[in-house]
Design a protein that fits this description.
The chain starts with a helix and ends in a 48-residue tail after the last strand. The longest helix is centred in the first third of the chain and has 19 residues. A 4-stranded antiparallel sheet has the order 1-2-3-6, with helices on one face. It has a two-stranded antiparallel sheet with strand order 4-5. The chain has one domain. By secondary structure, it is α+β, with helices and mostly antiparallel strands.
Length: 129
């Protein structure tokens, strides 16, 4: 089984590559994505420049499996979560899972999809509806 840290590194690299292909000036400025590790989640931060200015949260990756609330939504290790704010993810539904393969395209460079196929009864694939 793949290591979560490796998958997070690959995600940040894929996001950075996609951003630099979409916007040529980003490569010159050193724009990149980087993980920040916490107790429950890994925050993925987007930086506009190499000096880490212009930071914004791309999303979060869940570290440990847990069940939330009365609805009983189970969040698995590697679940991709949309940011609710700088410090916390939105816990309404996962947007995909890194262990299942989370494809990065141009639409995802600014954050995970709002609601993916899993919410609509499909798989945890992170694709847009």
């Amino acid at each position: 089984m793949k290591d979560l840290n490796v998958l997070v590194g690959n995600l940040c690299e894929d996001l950075t590559n996609e951003l630099c292909m979409a916007y040529k000036h980003c490569k010159d400025n050193g724009a990149h994505y980087a993980p920040t590790y916490g107790k429950k989640y890994i925050k993925i931060v987007s930086y506009d420049n190499a000096d880490k200015s212009g930071a914004s949260v791309w999303g979060f990756i869940n570290i440990n499996e847990f069940k939330k609330g009365l609805a009983g939504i189970t969040f698995l290790e590697g679940d991709v979560l949309k940011a609710s704010g700088w410090r916390a993810p939105a816990l309404n539904r996962p947007r995909g899972n890194l262990f299942d393969g989370f494809y990065v395209d141009r639409r995802k460079i600014f954050g995970p999809g709002y609601i993916s196929g899993y919410s609509a009864g499909g798989a945890r694939n992170g694709r847009f509806v």
